[in-house]
Amino acid sequence: RSGVDEERLEADADPLLPSSVSELQSAGGALRSGVDEERLEADADPLLPSSVSELQSAGGAFKKRNIMTAMIALGIANVYMMRINLSVAAGPMQKHFGWSNAEEGVVLGSFFAGYIPSQIPGGYMASRYGGKLVFGIGILGTAVMTLLLPRCAMYSTGLLYAARILTGVFEGVTFPAMNVMFTHWVPHTERSLRVAIMASGAAYAGNAVALPLSGYIVSYAKETLPGYDDPVSTSWPWVFYVFGCVGLAWFVLWLWLAADTPETHSTIDERELTYLRRTTGAAAAHDETDTRDGVSATDERGAAELVVKSKSAPWKGFLFTPGAWVVYLCHFGHNFVLYLGMTYIPKYLSEQLSFDIKSAGGIAVLPYLFQFCLAFMAGVFSDGLVAKRGWKIRNVRVLVTVLGVSLCATFLCITGWIKDTALAVASMTCAVGFSGWLASGYNCSYLDLSPHYCGQFFSVGNVLANFAGLLAPIAAGQLLNDDQSSPSNGTASNVHVGDDIVSEAADWRNVFYMAAGVYLLAGLQYCLFISGKPLQALN
């Protein structure tokens, strides 16, 4: 038979006959031309143990995806440490430079003037030039601007504003770039834990480290300035020098250890590479002109789900797909509570509970530590339900969102009624901490719904969600001012008998009710309408 292989003829027979499958398993002998046994195994049914679960341990103790997870998490922690250090140093800086309260507010808020507009360009650049480059340059630029900030402040207030805006621009590209790398480095069975650690847990840990360390540095050296009775910090510039140098050191390690994709990593184990190809959203990537019907993304159990990758990011889909807005609204609600806590926790502790400002600064760390621990636990719990219990991804996302939102809202409402100082602090810590469960909720939905364009999808959501940073303090301030300006409400602002708070504190209760209500509404619509499968309009 001219040009015809006997084995190929037999393979074209009835696919259910033993002779066409099982008897052909050894076809080709020991020298199968150009075929790697492991690559054959990886191309098998993705649900077979030999093709996925047995490859999960490939790479040994130093799996490249573990190193990438650690480096991205350290990068995000650095970003948050460099973001929050000005909040601690602003007090002594205001005294040194004679800022008004309005000028101090502009200095703190100017960061967002650069941060919000750079989100979408960051996602575009990361998809075009690679997540490693954009993420690395984002943190390098943030570190450089942090190092220069004291000198800018000494030169002029206008130059300080410019430095803060540029800091926001550099930092704004990091989260979209990180989400682009998710599509290459995060297997679907490990998605909840890894995304929780990198996207949320690292941010909480960064806050928890930066607050007490910055406070220690600021209080290290002081001197008496003209016009002030108490000594004023002279060591505040070192807050920026220390964290800026840490950012530079991280960048050196990033250049050495990181890679855009598993395929471009020079030392990755071949079996780990095969595993990542089979289990990440990037494995599904192909053009619309591909002759196949579709490609493999992850369905609700991590099996093959056909979804086509368009030639360019579907920006129209990001803006007009209802499923996308389900994620955006939940993201907004979470940020509303997060920014409200960052702005008003120290104020509540120091003014309403009469804590010394140093004690308030130290205790303000507790919610973020608890939040980090619960974010980690939620990731382990969620991945276990998917990988070991066979839960659908949608059901897992809904479960952690219900737990996180309901417990957070409950403790927010309780906090305003507690009169004992220690119990009020514990309740507030629980409220912020339980919100960490959502690290395995809406955060993972960006990758669930758009495995091909996760970075661009996230950039749109992060722009919208960060408006909560503007609206939350304004809304809370209006509630507090309204109550304080209305003597007919019959409430005192802060009355103590011994160590107990006996004031009704109706103004603060309204703030807590508002935060709980926004969070509950955001979580409710997410649980009702979220999907666990990729949406074609977002790919």
Could you explain how this protein is built, in words?
With 539 residues, the chain is an all-alpha fold. The protein is 65% helix and 3% strand. It contains 21 helices and six strands. The strands form three sheets. A two-stranded antiparallel ribbon has the order 1-2. Helix 6 packs antiparallel against helix 10 (237-257), helix 9 packs antiparallel against helix 15 (366-387) and helix 13 runs antiparallel to helix 14 (357-363). It is globular. 47% of the residues are buried. Residues 6-26, 29-50, 284-304 and 482-504 have low confidence and may be disordered.
Strand content: under 5%
* Average pLDDT over all residues: 79
Structural class based on helices, strands and sheet pairing? mainly alpha
The percentage helix is 55-70%
Biggest sheet: strand arrangement: 1-2
Count of separate DSSP helical elements: 21
Distance between the termini: 47 Å
In total, the number of strands is: 6
Work out the radius of gyration: 26 Å
Shape estimate: globular
Order of helices and strands: HHHHHHHHHEEHHEEHHHHHHHHHEEH
Query: Residue ranges: pLDDT <50 for 5 or more in a row?
Result: 6-26, 29-50, 284-304, 482-504
